[in-house]
Structures are given as structure tokens and as C-alpha cells.
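Chapter review: from sequence to fold.
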Amino acid sequence: MTELKAIDLTRIPAAVRLIVSRLRQQGWETCLVGGCVRDLQLGINPTDWDLATAAMPWQVSQTFPQLEQLEQGLKHGTLGLVLDKQVYEVTTFRREGDYRDHRHPDQVLFTTDINSDLARRDFTMNAMAWWEEGGLRDPFGGQADLRQGLLRCVGQPERRFQEDALRMMRALRFMAVRGFSLQADTARALQEHRSELTLVAAERLRAELDRLLTGDYLLPVLLDWKDTLAVVLPEIRPLFGLKQPLPWHIYDAWVHSARAAAEIAPQLRLRLAALCHDLGKGETASFKDGNIHFYGHAEVSRRLGDELLLRLKYPNELRQTVTHLVARHDVEIPLKATAVRRRLQEFGQAGLRDLLELKRADIMAQNPELWPRRLAYLRQLDSLVQDELNRGSCFSLKDLAVNGRDLMALGLSGPAVGQGLQALLDRVVDGNLPNERQILLRAAQNLLR
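The C-alpha cell string follows.
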């Protein structure tokens, strides 16, 4: 049971109060609606302020002739007003027709009835309206559901999900971020209609997935709603029920991956890496001497992870970061300064920290009996990394005591300059040369012989 807070007018931006008061002065009922009303009751500062009004868009426009106005949403009854460099969307109360494209209504019908407007929304906790004079408008019991942390569709859940299939991912996101649970009829409808998630554009799915993955309540969503997630992420399905070798593992490959993803720090690149790190186990599973093995699974996981991230249109830089971590998540790093410098050379400081965090989460999702020894190793490794950083060890070209101009002055040119610098760096990292300018220049001269 969540204790809700009374909505405090002082927490609402002055620009929002101005818009509402001006429209109400003209005689048009106007109020806050949707997520901002929900968040205010949860004690969360809203990031978006949605306003609904009985005024038609042209009437809203005439009320604020001095403001910059954005008209992209006019066909849906939405006018953007720019105040203090922020855009506030004001939408006319509306009813909607069918959604043949599973996203946009075929027809928008304006109304002066706020209850009709609230009836078209996804979940009861998002179907509340508020303003100081009228108080809370809650025709569908959203406040009671919010207090109980219960996600319930407004009206018939089947219809809500058919109108916009993304609402199913949004439901999972609310569960992962807020720890909400699904009301029984809503849960049943979600299971029945989950295949319709294939109709949703990749960019919209990705936006919900990003927020879902970084939620504090991720694990139960990954475990309890795996079949729904597999519609969006079909690469995870081969992991369901896939046994792993004892004594290292006590969970199947999917439960292990889910636990690793929930355990790792809640940063998107890390959660994606943990989610993808064992994707290749289904494809590489083999049996020998009565044991299951996954030879080469890291590289296959990299490939499958790359396909997943490409399909969902993740940015190239993030994709490369994630897939490199996935490909190298099992790399062995001996407790030696040279080995640490080599990994710093490969990953960089931030990248190596990410790798160690992925290794930690991987261990924490395995047999707890093995935690003490394996975590002790990670702590020692982390200490060695810190020692190298404190010493100012050279592990990248920018740290090298010579640069390309120095090598060109010695007579090197073209690709030989880069190759020479890399050769010098490798010898410094391996401990065969100190990172001292004169010694490096003498070593570079030998490259000319």
C-alpha cells in the first residue's frame, strides 16, 4: 500500500498555472491530466505537464496570441505553447474512434466532457485529472489503484491493447520502474495480445525497453513476463530452460541472464550487456562426458546482441560498447600488472570498470557457494587496476611520451607512423620499455633500420 500525497499547487510551474487560469477565466474547464497527476500524488516531480481543456485549439490559440505556438499536433487537438523556453501541450477534450493501425485513432471527436476524455486513456492511474477549484476527477478508480500499486486498464483491456500495442510494453515498464503489479484481467489480456507487439515501430519499443531495463524492480518482470519480452527480443527464447553446468551454475541460462541484468549497475549500456552476454549459449550448447558446454558462446552472443541492437535501432556507439563487453565478458585477466595494463589498453579506464562490473554481476547470478573466492579475485583485480591508475601508467597513445610528429621527425611517414607508435605502446604496456621520451625515441630509431 502506497501512501499518496495531496497535490500541492506550489509544486506546479508558474507557466502551467498561468495557462490553466487564463483558460478557466474564459469559461473553459481546464486541468492537469495523466502522468503528472499520478506523479504528484506519488511525491515525484513530473517531467511532463499535460493539460486538457474544453476549449477548441483555435480558442486556446486566441487566448495566448503573444506566445510562440507549435501546431504539429493540431489534427489530434493538441497545441503547444512555449513559455520560458519550455513547451506545454494543451489538448482539447476528445473521444476517439477505432485504431486500425494499432497506434493512431482513425477519428478524433472533440467533446466538452472530461470523463469522456479520461475514458480513452491506457491505465486508471493515468486517467485522473486535477485542478485546484475542482479537485481530483477520478471516474475509474485510479487513485485507489495507485494506492495499491495496481495497473488496471481503463475499460476493456483487450480494446486498450488493440488500440495501441505499445501499452503492453508500457505496462511492463511501470512494473519494472515502480514495482506495480497487473490486475488480473489486464494481465490476461496482455498475455493474449502480446504477439501484437510485432506491429509496434522499433523506436517506440526501444524507448520503453530502455526505461524498463534501468528499473529498480527489473528481475520479476524479466522472469514473470519472459514470453512477452521474447516477442520484442526473440534472441532470448533459446535460453528459457537451458540447463547450465554444475557446480558453477544453479539457474538455467535465462534466469542467470535475468539475475545478472538485475544485479548490474542500472546504466543502460551495462544492463544491455548483461542481458545479452549469454545469448549465444542456445546456439553453442554441446554435450561431452555427460556435461553441457558452450564453447565459443561469447562471440555468438556478440553477434546475436548486435543483431538485437541493430533491429531496435540503438545508436552505433552504444551498440559497439555493449557488443565489445559481451564478446569479452569471459576474458581471463591474471593478477599481474602487465595483464591489467593490457586490458586498460584494450578497454580504457571506463571500459575496464564496465567489464569488471559485468563480471561481478555474472558471478552474483551463479552459485552462491562460489561467491567468496570469485569475488575476492575481482577485488584483487580492481585493486591492481587502481594501482596502475594511481601510478599514471601508460596504456593509450595519448599517454605515450612521444607522438606522431616525433616519429615523422625521425623519418617515418604514412602508415608507418601509426604502426611505430603502436609498437612502442605495446612494449611500454608489456613492461619492456619505460614511458620516457628519450628511450622511446631511441627505440623508434631502431624501427628505421
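Two observations follow directly from the output. Residues 397-446 form one domain. The two ends are 78 Å apart (CA to CA).
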